[in-house]
Amino acid sequence: MPFCTQCGNQVADVDAFCAKCGKAQTAPGAGFSNAPPRPRQPFSGSDPLANLSPHVASILCYIPTVGWIFAVIVLASQKFKQEHIARFHAFQGLYLFAIWLMVQWVVHPIMIASSNNSIRIDRGLEGLVVGVSIFMLIKASQGDAYVLPIIGELAQRSANEQ
Predict the structure, then answer these.
(1) Run of H or E including 4
(2) Are residues 91 and 65 in the same domain?
(3) Does residue 32 sit in helix, strand or coil?
(4) What is the pLDDT along the chain (162 residues), one digit of tens a residue?
(5) How much is the pTM?
């Protein structure tokens, strides 16, 4: 019995299409193979970050609310172990996210619990953090290692330590 040349699934001589992958089967000898199916290759272990440049990695660290994921990936990756600029942006993005978390988990509940809801400092701080994130996205896309006050200096020290 022949096998599909696309996926290696066993097909009948009269099948017009492979039941597994849907590849059109032609006359015997043209679209069929009498060889047994090839075993699937296991994951080769290639680096999923191989095509990610330090410049792009730096930009991804500042995406509001999800940039911290890319920052952790950059800091954990062997590829960026020696890339000082990418590590700097990863740390600064993480510290910026930590500020956003403090606003969400500390300032926001205090503002809700307070009786004066006309002045909402938490909304202004949220806007400020998102604005700084967008500013840093632009700076990182221009290749500028802009150092934010306080957290930027901390990020520089953290990036220098390995």
Answers:
(1) strand 3-4
(2) yes
(3) strand
(4) 677 877 778 888 778 878 888 788 875 544 445 555 556 555 556 667 778 899 999 999 999 989 999 999 999 998 899 999 999 999 999 999 999 999 999 999 988 888 776 778 889 999 999 999 999 999 999 999 999 999 999 999 999 986
(5) 0.68
Same domain as 60, residue 35: no
Does a structural domain hold residue 45?
Answer: no
In this structure, the answer to whether residues 34 and 58 fall within a common structural domain is no
Domain range holding 97?
54-160
Q: Which helix (H) or strand (E) holds 142?
A: none
Q: Do 141 and 59 touch, CB atoms closer than 8 A?
A: yes
Cα–Cα distance measured from residue 129 to residue 124, given in angstroms and rounded to the nearest whole number: 9
In a domain, 3, yes or no: yes
